[in-house]
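We emphasize that the prediction below concerns an isolated chain of 567 residues; any contacts that depend on oligomerization or on bound cofactors are therefore not represented. The input was used exactly as deposited, without trimming of termini.
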Amino acid sequence: MRRSGAVLLLAAALGVWNLWAYDLWAPDEPYFGEGAREMVAEGHWAVPHVNGVVTTDKPPLFFWLIAAFSLPFGAVSSFTARLPSLLAGIGTVALTIRLGRRLGGVNDGTMAGLVLATTYLSWDKTRSAQIDALLCFLVLAAVSAFEAFRAGDARGRRAGLLFWAAAALAVIAKGPVGLLLPLGIAILTLALDRELRAWGSFAPWTGPLLFLGIVGAWIALATLGGHGEYSVWGAFEKHVLSRAIHGMHHGQPPWYYAEVLPVQLLPWSGLLPGAVLLGWRRRRERSVRILLVWAAFVVLVFSISTEKRDLYVLPAYPAFALLFARLIVAVGGEAEAAGACTPHRRWVTVPLALTGGVLALAGLGLPAAVRRFPEFPATPGLVLAAALLAGGAAIVVAALKGSVRGAALAAAVAASLVFLAAAEAVFPALDPLRSARAFATEVKDITASSRAAGEPVLAYRIGNLPQAIAFYSNGLYTRETEDPAELASHLRSEREVFALADRSQFDLLPAAALGRVLILRSADLASRHVVLISNRGAGVGAGPPARPSSSLGGAGERSEGGKRYFP
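Result of the prediction step, given as a token string:
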């Protein structure tokens, strides 16, 4: 119990350390922060609004949680926006420890919790105002209820109700995938166990009715509270079917996760082949089959989908952690079934030694890489480099001594050092480069007179950045458009008007429109070079005087309104 408590304390420390010290970073975090801000400020609780309009991208649960945590403070901050993920991440580690104990014993549970708490993607999403840590927790809660029923540790009705309630909340968090993942894991596991008839004892009627009641209440609230602006079917068709079949923003090849998992599972990714092989050898054990099904099903579902991101498979990470823990404990001779298909210690020590070597080399090479980016302060880079070098060297030394337990502990300590260095030094240093706060404030000030006169600010092909502008300007809502003709028409106004645009998309504009465009401000945000443009520059009533601006109307120098502009 003491070791489990220490693991939970470590998970909490890694998650909360300096969490408030940097802004919400585009593209994802300001989306959820702005939706919650509009709930608190404008009362849009039934259906989330982002940038002043109804959003169908995500259901409301994550927005509700952020808004609820922010209410006592009167405003949404970077800390309150990340607090639901932080609590979900810690809860996921706690449930993983509990499930590991049930499946393999105390050592399995403690080691699985330690592995999960120090896995890169798990740690990163625990600290992010993104929905995936919450989804992972709810899927794990459902799977844990199913496993308790399957192992005979809980009555079918009670476990079934917990399963369906967790799945319902997962649906309200991220849509149908919240049901697909736990239900698919449960059905496939029972099929492999040849126990599908047992489903009849797993709250076969009351569970689905509870699920429909919870999800149905949300659908009714969204339909009535949306005043005709929100369609559950329309959201499902656009953001589930269309994304899965055609992709919208993140289309990737089927082998995508073979490329990203080795990085996102660090420092434990080298154990994946051995953990899967050991699991296959022990597939006759009921406690192993569910882990193999769980990890494989989640990765396969998202591999089939056209749209993929590394964080989509986060719900598989508790299963990975449990498989890694079984390998470490078995090789270390601590397993209750030690001797049964027990591999050699090299299955753990060699991969960890290689990982340690890579981390140490990264630490040695990082200072040179940092010097190539003069806008990034050198000190944070050196702090991270020192953590990588020290942590990697510690792993190598422990692994070369042949100590499985020592190498695993060294890997956890090394990861913790690197994560703390990143949270304490690197993220705050990156904040001026990643945050839209300064740019949004300038946009708000410069466009104030134009907006007061009733002129909208257009947002032309800048992805999810309008929500970051709205969040950090405290309610400057831009009118989003993908149509170059609409932007060109806007710029032909006889009054001074403004727009935000992706500089790389200007080639789509008519030449006549380009002739009047003046760049007033620019910022590199979320892999886009975003510019604030005007049809006349910063003229009378446009707020603070603009810095020298650029004309896009042609080559060479030109003057306008007594000011000189350069292309």
